Amino acid sequence: MSSTKPVIVYGASGYTGRLVCEHLRDYNVPFIAAGRSEDKLTAAMRTNVAGIETADYEIRTVEHTVEALTALFEGASVVCNTVGPFSIYGPEVVEAALAAGVHYTDTTGEQDWLVTCDEKYGAGFAAAGLLLAPSIAQMYTTGEIAAQIALETPGLDTLDIAVFWGGSPTIASTQTILVNAALAKAYYLEQNAYQEWDPNAGLYNLAIPGQHELALALPWGGTSHPVWFKRDPRVANVKALGGVFNKALMQGVPQIVAAAIEATKDMTPEDRYAALTATAQQVMNQMPPRENPRINKSLDSVHASGPLGRAHVVIHGNRNYQQTGLLQAYAAYSLVQQAPRRVGFASGCQAFGHRELLGVLQTFGYVQDPIVTIHR
After folding, report:
1. What is the dihedral of CA 355, 20, 276, 118, to 10 degrees?
2. Torsion sign over Cα 325, 327, 331, 333
3. CA dihedral 29, 33, 34, 40 (to 10 degrees)
4. Which of 165, 233, 288, 318 is the most buried (most CB within 10 A)?
5. Tell me: the pLDDT tens digits for 63-94?
6. What CA–CA distances, in Å, run from 98 to 5, 73, 363?
């Protein structure tokens, strides 16, 4: 059955999917809340999406196959995919989006999935005049906004990025983090080539703006930034580290990941995925509460450097998942009305403009004005 509404939120019953729906309602964009369970979708819309009584939406259930998803997507303009781990569940959605002729966005942070989108699917989307924009989310897009502001200063070719957030990850995020850490390598960019992070390096100590105590960080799967900037002629080197402000929680992450990897190393891929998923559920098995701006803070810090220049950009914000919901909703809102700045594989900033996305986040009170320091 073809869609009668321009936007489809796939995985709408999940924590992030609900927030995408909420912000689509803010933009008066009609949407379809799609997923596998009608009961979960109905309950999520009624009880977890603020203002849903004024939204123009439908609920649709769909099987996770290319054929079923293609039929659902036909007639729509864009699909916002929140169903991860994306390296496992993403291919069917991307292939269906291309077959149906709709733009694709998702909330992934999985570096291997971004590389797959770039190398396997990007050319097909470009030829069709469609946008393929994975990883439009707070942990990646807000940091990229800071990086793009730093790069407004000419002559800088190296990005040193730190992303921190407050609060607990969702069930889906915990699963993705653990599965991706166990099954995929993490890379940074050095002279336009991917280089692997040392998997045995452990935690990194970072001096981050706004506090005297050193923070703990990890490569966090490599993040999206090295992939986005690999073909940017201004940039040759990108390293990104991330973490949560809760130091005790960060100290436990490497042990959990190492134990899971050791316990599952001899399993078949299917059994290993099932075991890692079970471990993730032990770590986080319930949805976190709606975000509190006094607790759920965000910090994006980018040092950009070149042979004869330096720039530092810091963006303080709050409500990390709501930033993601808003960024996804705005991307869909924009795509319904006009073509993106770039088709094929592109980041949110490359497709919609970093200053525009900054303005969107500020309009909803999610981030402060960037703090910019330039040394020439």
Report:
1. -50
2. positive
3. 170
4. 165
5. 999 999 999 999 999 999 999 999 999 999 99
6. 18, 10, 32
For 93, list phi and psi in degrees, rounded to 5: -70, -45
Q: Which of 7, 26, 212 is nearest to 102 (CA)?
A: 7
- How would you class 16 by CB atoms within 10 Å of its CB: exposed for 0-12, middle for 13-18, buried for 19 or more? buried
Does the structure show a pLDDT above 60 at 1? Answer: no
Distances (CA, A) of 136 to 266, 287, 374: 35, 21, 27
| pLDDT band for position 2 (cuts 50, 70, 90) | low
Q: Dig out the tokens for 349 from the structure.
A: 């900033």
Distance of CA 332 to the CA centre of its chain: 15
Phi, psi for residue 298 in degrees, rounded to 5: -135, 150
Encoded amino acid at 337, one letter: Q
* Strand ranges (E), 307-354: 309-318, 344-345
Q: Which CATH superfamily is domain 138-318+368-375 in?
A: Dihydrodipicolinate Reductase; domain 2 (3.30.360.10)
What is the mean pLDDT of the segment spanning 197-205?
Answer: 91
Answer yes or no: are the C-beta atoms of 309 and 155 closer than 8 Å: yes
Q: Is 374 exposed, middle or buried (0-12, 13-18, 19+ CB in 10 A)?
A: middle
Q: Domain 7-137+322-363: which topology?
A: Rossmann fold (3.40.50)
Q: What is the distance between the alpha carbons of residues 138 and 326, in angstroms, rounded to a whole number?
A: 9
Instruction: Report the run of H or E that residue 297 belongs to, with start and end.
Output: strand 297-306
pLDDT digits (tens, 9 = 90+) for 226-264: 999 999 999 999 999 999 998 888 888 777 777 777 777
Asked if domains 7-137+322-363 and 138-318+368-375 share a fold, the reply is no
Question: Can you state the percent helix, strand and coil of the chain, rounding each to 5?
Answer: 45, 20, 35
Domain boundaries, the chain: 7-137+322-363, 138-318+368-375
pLDDT in tens, 281-321: 666 666 778 899 999 999 999 999 999 999 999 999 999 99
Instruction: Give dist(CA 237, CA 150) in Å, integer.
Output: 14
